[in-house]
Amino acid sequence: MLSARPVEGAFRRLRWGADTILIVILLAVPWIRIDGQPLILLDIPGRKFHVFGLTIFPQELYFLWMIVAGLALALFFFTALGGRLWCGWACPQTVFSDVYALVARRLQGWSRSRPPGRVAPWRKVLTHACWVAISAFVGFHLVGYFRSPYEMLAALQSGELSGASMGFLAAATVLAYLDFGLLRQNFCKYLCPYARFQGVLFDRDTLVVAYDEGRGEPRGKKGRVDGDCIDCGLCQEVCPTEIDIREGLQLECIACTQCIDACDGVMEQIGRPKGLIAYRSLVGLEGGTIRWLRPRVLVYAGLLALVVASFGASLGARKPLGMEVERNRAMLYQRMADGRIGNAFTLHLQNRDREQRVFRLGIEPRESFELVTGLNPVLMPPTSNIEARVFVVARNGQDDGLGKIDVRFVVEEITHPDLKVERESRFVMPGGAR
Known about the structure:
Elements: H1 10-28, E1 33-34, E2 37-38, E3 40-43, E4 48-51, E5 54-56, H2 61-82, H3 85-90, H4 92-108, H5 121-143, H6 149-158, H7 163-183, H8 186-191, H9 193-201, E6 208-211, H10 213-216, H11 234-237, H12 258-269, E7 277-280, H13 282-285, H14 295-317, E8 321-327, E9 334-335, E10 341-351, E11 357-364, E12 369-373, E13 378-380, E14 384-394, E15 404-413, E16 420-428
Antiparallel strand pairs: 1-2, 3-4, 4-5, 6-7, 8-10, 9-10, 10-14, 11-13, 11-15, 12-14, 15-16
Helix pairs in contact: 2-14, 4-5, 5-7
């Protein structure tokens, strides 16, 4: 008798292996440190983003955009080649929905994505309790991408976790429970935008999960028809999005390959060749040969290579020091007791490196202006921001009628004078304030 339970096939074993690896990676990433800095941390209050050893400040958001653009183009490239590989094998929605479904299958006897007709109440309660516990665990790690999990764990243990952090943890827990426990693959069917525009990325050479209609039809019981499909319906029973793959490619198909394993198991039982449902292209179904190098694939590959090259060039030209100059607009200038004119500025300094550095502040032209600051040189911890309030004084002999004069702030590393950043601003004299 054919079973409606998930079929232990080659793809299923491979998917569970991939799911395990991905879950370990997703949960481990917030805990990993490189030279004391997080591997990935989107520190919004601190206005800096740690991404694989690179600390991105707000002035460098183009790095983040290039990373996002590169990931999108990589998705387009692999989709054009292999269809919805992301959805079926790497998307957290699919991965964690599988985990929640596994819990329900063990406790309630689900046939993959649907509960049986009658379930004992205590089993339902236990299932949802397990889901809530898993959701809290997943939610904690989700928030861990925005705040250090080490800090949150210490705050939880000491009872000093802020109300905002508690609110985000509660929201992440509820989101995980509703999404992975209740919504599951309905998100893929009705809410995921990727399913809607995948048709633009596919062509006749793209590999998809497809049913060989020429071999399978006409379908019916073995011995009564010539087609290999015996119309058991098992491919539809195991589908988490509840589609019938025999009706052709549909946007709800997430390429999870469960129908392939189910059909191969049936073919093995009835002594017919496997592959009635398989990864194939429409060209392959018609007896043609897949063209791997085709225009859309080459375009995506070229754009991806361009983004990667631009990212590498920008990273190579990046300096470990950043500086922005802000003048005091409330008081354009100030006359000193000795008659000289002074302007107040705020220097926003950034140490983008993962090691401590010491920087010296300067002003040019030095023969015309003097820089007055409370601390110079400045010691900056790794990946830190510092505001240095400075006062620039015009030396004796400056003409009050000059109005506005260009000055240049210079910040250089003590041990490496060639490592410096310069920013220009305007020095306002009484003649330029009118």
